[in-house]
Amino acid sequence: MELSQLLRERRSVHTFEDRPVSPELVMELLETAIWVPNHRMTQPWRFILTYGEGRRKIAEAVRKIKESKEPDPSKKKEVGQKFYDKIMSIPMILTVLMKEDPSLIVREEDYASTSCVIHNFSLLAWEKGIGLVWETYGWLHESIFRETMGIQPGEKVVGNLHIGYPAKIPPAQPRIPAAHLITVFDQA
Ligand SMILES: Cc1cc2nc3c(=O)[nH]c(=O)nc-3n(C[C@H](O)[C@H](O)[C@H](O)COP(=O)(O)O)c2cc1C
Question: Which of 5, 9, 116, 137 is most buried, judging by how many CB atoms fall within 10 Å of its CB?
Answer without folding.
Answer: 116
